[in-house]
Amino acid sequence: MGGWVRRLQARWQAYRYRFVPWIAMNLKDRKLRSVPKGTQDKIIPDSAVLSTLRYQHGLDVMLKTLGFCTERRESSVVGAGRGVFVTKGKVPAETVVSMYPGTMYYPFEPILLQSIANPFVFRCIDGVFIDGNDRSISKMIYRSCAGRDRIGPYLTCDQSWLTPYPKNPLAVGQYVNNQSAGHPANVAYQEYNIKVDFPFSLRKYLPNIHYSPNLQTSQDASYRSLRVVVLLSLRDIEAGEELFSSYFTLVE
Ligand SMILES: C[S@@+](CC[C@H](N)C(=O)[O-])C[C@H]1O[C@@H](n2cnc3c(N)ncnc32)[C@H](O)[C@@H]1O
């Protein structure tokens, strides 16, 4: 008995195919794709695989529910860095196409240090700021506030926009570039206050958080709401088009 077990064990250890033998036996065409010994069987890098696995879900849902997908890509404006493109489907006019993620500061809160050389600080009409920078001190502050405000295992905001794989695929509004000659604005910013009665279970998808913790229990209801900024399409936007906003909106 010991002999055939050992022989079976040895054959199993020598088995080199991807599929188990009982599947391979059922397949007539057993053409081999050989991978040299000592090399790794990788056609595309791990990072590319991970990117597809992690991002696919969000984009699929976006396409099914909203009828379009947006993604960050190299801008069509030379030297402008990255931008946001409609990559699938079509955005009808007056549709929420992106959100502006980040930490929310009231005008009296300290943002000077974080704002130095930071092109991602958005200023609302009433002087509230949203820091949408996903790097350096801005990123540390957002993560710190997110950790502070979570309630046990329950998250009160989304942190995945700080990575290349946002769970909420709308949270890329900070990458929308400014309009220029030949690239007129096709989206515009709109501010919205999330009130305290917003469903708790959905807060984990919001890519925004308060800088200060104590104001959320303030007697003044205006300090308890969370400011979010969305980008709305000004016209129908087709797949392949880049989004452009007007950074210099004058509200009279
Ligand atoms: C909020 S960020 C937008 C995302 C940025 N393109 C990136 O790759 O990180 C603003 C910065 O983008 C660049 N930018 C935006 N619109 C531009 C334009 N029309 N022409 C050239 N650069 C632009 C400028 O460097 C600006 O400081």
UniProtKB/TrEMBL annotation:
CDD domains: SET_SETD9. It comes from the Eukaryota. Residues 68-248 form the SET domain. This is SETD9 protein.
